[in-house]
Amino acid sequence: MIPVLDPKPISSPPVPLRALRPPGLKTDPRSTETVIRFEDFTIRYGTFAAVRNVSMEIGERRVTAIIGPSGCGKSTLLRSLNRMNDFVPNATVEGRAWYRGEDIYDPRKDPVDLRRRIGMVFQKPNPFPKSIYRNVAWGAVINGYRGNLDELVEHSLGQAALWDEVKDKLHQSALALSGGQQQRLCIARAVALQPDVLLMDEPCSALDPIATARIEDLIGELKTRYTVVLVTHNMQQAARVSDITAFMYLGELIEVDSTDVIFTRPAHQRTQDYITGRFG
Fold first, then answer.
1. Residue 11 within any structural domain of the chain
2. CB-CB contact of 14 with 82 (8 Å)
3. How large is the average pLDDT for residues 170-194?
4. In the predicted model, what is the mean pLDDT of residues 206-227?
């Protein structure tokens, strides 16, 4: 059994993101098949608008890839979905972002609860300096999980396609795993909290081609259970794993459509120029 060092959920950040919006409607009456929806959504750091007037929908149990050159705002937009930007001083939002009909930036919404429902996997694998078992179980324990931890760990590692590789060394340090295994462990840690949405911020950028292929295969399996939103610099990866692709440039959403359309017959010349390598 893992000792519970702090039975309370992690508290909200001391400097919460301030939503610059008038009071009004807090629920979205549209179909729940749209899991996430942005309406004229802008994110500012001070006076700088990192994301400007984005409007788009993200459907249930699909992989939506966000592509674009460095600095275009794609990671900033991704982090806004579970309010990771709350930790950035002077960050503000305008417009609206909905998650299953709920206003993500409603001041009454608990961001900690939101992050349980919208999990995140970061660019660089970041396992805890603990055993493989405790890495997977830790989040569930501190959030009050009262089920069978052994079953939860096995199920989560299985979903991350890692169980067969680590089942005989669960109590060894996670830091001894390879980079690709560590990233899959981080995915297992995220799904152990039983989220609805998985955010992935360039999850393969630090991995070798073999590990990248394993993660890409895993993403295809995960979308049968979760809604996946993926940020990637790798256009070939977006073409391989995503159902929908959104292209961003200088903080603006230029185009969003099925991945096949984006990569074969985009509507905008700027999209065509990017995917053919003329810039970026």
1. no
2. no
3. 96
4. 93
Taking the CA of residue 30 as centre, how many other CA atoms within 13 Å lie in the half-sphere pointing to its CB?
17
Per the CB < 8 A criterion, the answer to whether 7 and 141 are in contact is no
142 within 8 A of 9, measured Cβ to Cβ: yes
For residue 153, give every residue at least 6 positions away whose Cβ sits within 8 Å of its Cβ, in sequence order, or none.
133, 136, 137, 170, 192
At 16 the pLDDT is: 35
CA distances from 46 to 49, 93, 229 (A): 8, 10, 26
Overall number of domains in the chain: 1
Query: 206 pLDDT exceeds 90?
Result: no
Low-confidence winner among 8-17, 44-53, 148-157, 233-242 (lowest mean pLDDT): 8-17
pTM of this structure = 0.85
Tell me how far CA of residue 56 lies from CA of 64, 97, 121, in angstroms: 11, 10, 22
Calculate the CA 131 to chain-centre distance: 24
For residue 9, being part of any structural domain is answered with no
pLDDT at 188: 97
**CATH number for the domain that contains residue 51:** 3.40.50.300
Q: For residue 59, what is the enclosing H or E element?
A: strand 48-59
* Rounded distance between C-alpha atoms, residue 264 and residue 241, angstroms: 16
Q: Is residue 108 part of a domain?
A: yes
- For residues 27 and 242, give the distance between their C-alpha atoms in angstroms, rounded to a whole number: 29
Backbone φ, ψ for residue 244 (5° rounding): -125, 140
Q: What share of the chain has pLDDT > 90, as a percent?
A: 85
Between the CA of residue 187 and those of 64, 115, 119, 226, what are the distances in Å?
Answer: 17, 14, 9, 12
